[in-house]
């Protein structure tokens, strides 16, 4: 991809070796089946195990818990290679970079020992369950409750839009405890009595992702299922959401680059009025504008990666990154689809599906409006509490 943009200096030869392995795996084991998975509405469990064997899941998890203890650039490689191949179905990023970090950072050793080796191997799948039908941006409005019982908690409530919802073995659940109105995070085993998966929701894009409803009907949890301390959920979420937004930035930048790459090739081949489409000034200007956007995005995303690795990526900067890169992806896929004419609207072209897939990125993981709120809050600080 760099041949269309500028050289990147983040990676060492060992990262490039890993990239070559992941690229081959994605080309051979994922891309040929992706359309079938889109029709099925989810991916098979076995692909998770294969990805786990390759070391594509939870790359940074410590070797004590079965991980490779690799640096974050391995994660970046895994995310990018899926995006470069338009492989939006398998929710590896949600698992590895959105759900598992809560456990890896804030979990007890007993919790890590119980879950992490299987999550790293792809034998267990994780999901984050925050959003509810009446509470998405405003997490303070969450109604799911955990009432204290003798030695544990009893969980009741409802979640919606949960990625990996049909496949997940572990749900990282945000709930209010009855001690106070503050949020806590629970590690909920999907096999517990009272955990019910609802509908796999039909949606505009991401057809191979099992975005689902989820219900908790008086689920009896152990004391050991509470993550960290009761009432500290919002603090954990703010930490987790910054990493989640960085993941979205990395993925969206790579997706935009992939669509741009495909479109440059398409317009060079497609002939209109006896000339390649790439000779039309409008096409040249549209793709030149996209390239300028991509260069800016690449500089921004690589900087965010470096900040994260240095431990200096704050929530405001992550929000600014998510706002800019997801909006840029939207502009880029729209411009690229237009260059395909009617073929761009046909699902057989990647650009059509990339266009549909891109739309959610300005919504999930916190909407663009909420990103602006977070950025503005840093300018004129006040109380927090939105997604
Ligand atoms: C495909 C998909 C996958 C998802 N995966 C997950 C998942 O795995 N786990 C999970 O927990 N959630 C998930 N979500 C939920 C996602 O994070 C929420 O949809 C998102 O945070 C927005 O919440 P909402 O849908 O309730 O919209 P609302 O909060 O109702 O927002 C509606 C509109 O109001 C605007 N708005 C809200 N508050 C403000 C404000 N203060 N100022 C200005 N405008 C505002 C919003 O920006 C938006 O435009 C997913 C969503 C989708 C669509």
Shape: globular
Q: How widely separated are the two ends?
A: 33 Å
Q: Helices and strands, in N-to-C order?
A: HHHHHHEEEEEEEEHEEHHHH
> Roughly how many Å is the radius of gyration?
21 Å
- Strand runs, count: 10
Main beta sheet strand tally, sense and closure? 8 strands, mixed
Classify the secondary structure makeup into a structural class.
alpha+beta
Instruction: Estimate the strand proportion.
Output: 5-15%
3D structure, described in words:
This protein has about 375 residues and is of the alpha+beta class. The protein folds into three domains: about 1-125, Acyl-CoA dehydrogenase/oxidase, N-terminal domain (Butyryl-Coa Dehydrogenase, subunit A, domain 1, Orthogonal Bundle); about 125-230, Butyryl-CoA Dehydrogenase, subunit A, domain 2, CATH 2.40.110.10; about 235-380, Up-down Bundle (Butyryl-CoA Dehydrogenase, subunit A, domain 3). It is about 50% helix and about 15% strand. The chain contains eleven helices and ten strands. It has helices at about 15-30, 35-40, 45-55, 70-85, 90-105, 110-120, 235-270, 280-310, 315-340, 350-360, 370-380; strands spanning about 125-130, 145-150, 150-160, 170-175, 185-190, 195-200, 210-220, 225, 270, 275. Strands 1, 2, 3, 4, 5, 6, 7 and 8 form an eight-stranded mixed sheet that branches. A hairpin with a 2-residue loop joins strand 9 and strand 10 (about 275). Helix 7 runs antiparallel to helix 10. The longest helix has about 35 residues, at about 235-270. The radius of gyration is 21 Å and the shape is globular. The chain starts with 12 loop residues before the first helix and ends in an 8-residue tail after the last helix. Bound molecules: flavin-adenine dinucleotide. Flavin-adenine dinucleotide binds near residues 129, 163, 211 and 369.
């Amino acid at each position: 991809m760099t041949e269309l943009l500028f050289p990147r200096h983040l990676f060492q030869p060992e990262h490039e070796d890993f990239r070559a392995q992941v690229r081959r795996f994605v080309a051979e084991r994922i891309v040929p089946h992706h359309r079938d998975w889109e029709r099925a509405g989810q991916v098979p469990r076995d692909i998770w195990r294969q990805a786990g064997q390759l070391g594509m899941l939870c790359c940074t998890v410590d070797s004590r818990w079965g991980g490779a203890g690799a640096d974050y650039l391995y994660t970046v490689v895994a995310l990018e290679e899926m995006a470069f191949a338009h492989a939006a179905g398998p929710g590896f990023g949600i698992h590895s970079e959105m759900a598992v970090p809560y456990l890896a950072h804030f979990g007890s050793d007993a919790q890590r020992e119980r879950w992490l080796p299987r999550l790293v191997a792809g034998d267990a799948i994780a999901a984050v369950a925050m959003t509810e039908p009446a509470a998405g941006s405003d997490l303070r409005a969450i109604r799911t409750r955990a009432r204290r019982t003798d030695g544990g908690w009893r969980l009741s409530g409802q979640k919606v839009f949960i990625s990996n919802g049909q496949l997940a073995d572990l749900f990282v659940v945000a709930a209010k405890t009855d001690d106070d109105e503050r949020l806590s995070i629970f590690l909920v085993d999907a096999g517990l009595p009272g955990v019910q998966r609802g509908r796999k929701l039909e949606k505009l894009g991401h057809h191979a992702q099992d975005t689902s409803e989820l219900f908790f009907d008086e689920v009896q949890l152990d004391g050991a299922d509470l993550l960290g301390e009761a009432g500290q959920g919002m603090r954990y979420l703010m930490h987790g959401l910054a990493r989640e937004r960085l993941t979205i930035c990395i993925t969206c930048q790579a997706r935009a680059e992939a669509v741009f790459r495909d479109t440059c090739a398409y317009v060079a081949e497609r002939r209109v009025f006896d000339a390649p489409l790439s000779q039309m000034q409008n096409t040249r200007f549209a793709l030149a504008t996209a390239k300028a956007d991509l260069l800016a995005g690449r500089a921004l995303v690589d900087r965010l990666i470096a900040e994260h690795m240095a431990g200096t990526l704050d929530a405001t900067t992550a929000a600014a990154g998510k706002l800019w890169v997801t909006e840029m992806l939207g502009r880029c896929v729209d411009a690229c689809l237009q260059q395909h004419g009617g073929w761009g609207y046909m699902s057989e072209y990647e650009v059509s599906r990339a266009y549909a897939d891109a739309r959610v990125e300005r919504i999930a993981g916190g909407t663009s409006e909420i990103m602006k709120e977070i950025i503005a809050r840093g300018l004129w600080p006040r109380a927090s509490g939105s997604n």
